[in-house]
UniProtKB/TrEMBL annotation:
InterPro entries reported for this sequence: Phage_T4_Gp38_tail_assem, TFA_Chaperone
Native species: Serratia liquefaciens
Name of the protein described by the UniProt record: Tail fiber assembly protein
Length: 254
């Protein structure tokens, strides 16, 4: 776009001004009175700028260069985030989507794929499992489930994901069950040993007390019988086999 350049005059001049910004981009036109021997306002020219629809002009110091004008154009990324062009661009970003997305439903997220919008379930916060049952949490809406993982929880700690279902290692499960049973058995035996020791200490204490009372002539009625009963009780406790736990018939204290 070219035209007649402005010339100074001794007389006032009425001209159409075509202004541009600091980058030379056309900003508008207006009628202007130029005082005698005065120049044009900064960032302006009298060379007409009349771009076609969808175009604008850029002043290069001598003429207008017509370029595409995308300002005001709305576009979206593939997740539906909106953008608006506010400066001159030669073209939209390669990833730009110009089709407006639909209103997303609760619990869903948008994704533009294969030329159209689709809605995906937002799995953020959901638990997924690795091939050996280790769990993790989905960190963000567009999470892609890694290969060999699943949202289906395993049934046992001995399951392995084969790509379509959990497969239980029955041998490992049986071995673990035996180990657990052995540990539980050991705990029962240790509890019986502790109870046996506690009862023996109680019997020893009572026997010493009653024996001292009788030896010193300080016994009360029934002390001799109680001493005998505690001694019998102690013998019965000593004969207890903790390995027989939990099937132990514990003697009754006197």
């Amino acid at each position: 776009m070219t035209g007649t350049a402005f010339e100074f005059s001794d007389n006032p001049q009425f001209v159409w001004i075509y202004s541009f910004d600091e980058k030379g981009v056309f900003t508008g036109t207006y009628h202007y009175q130029v005082p005698p021997q005065s120049g044009l306002p900064a960032n302006s020219t009298t060379v007409p700028c009349q771009p076609k629809s969808g175009m604008t002009g850029v002043w290069d110091g001598k003429k207008w260069r017509e370029v595409p004008d995308l300002r005001g154009t709305a576009y979206w990324d593939k997740h539906g985030s909106p953008f608006v062009v506010i400066e001159l661009l030669k073209e939209l970003p390669e990833w730009a989507v110009t089709v407006a997305p639909p209103v997303v439903e609760p619990g869903q997220v948008l994704l533009f794929t294969d030329g159209e919008w689709c809605q995906l379930q937002d799995m953020t916060g959901k638990t997924y499992y690795g091939a050996y049952g280790h769990s993790a949490t989905v960190p963000e809406p567009y999470f892609v489930l890694p290969k060999g993982c699943t949202f289906t929880p395993p049934s046992t700690p001995f399951d392995t994901w084969d790509g379509s279902a959990w497969v239980t290692d029955t041998q490992a499960q049986a071995d673990a069950a035996l180990q657990d049973a052995a540990q539980q058995r050991q705990q029962v035996v240790e509890q019986a040993q502790q109870q046996r020791q506690t009862l023996l200490e109680m019997a020893d204490q009572q026997i010493r007390y009653l024996a001292d009372a009788i030896e010193l002539g300080m016994q009360q009625d029934g002390d001799a019988e109680r001493l005998t009963a505690w001694k019998k009780f102690r013998v019965l406790v000593v004969r207890i086999d903790p390995e027989a736990a939990p099937d132990i018939d514990w003697p009754v204290m006197p």
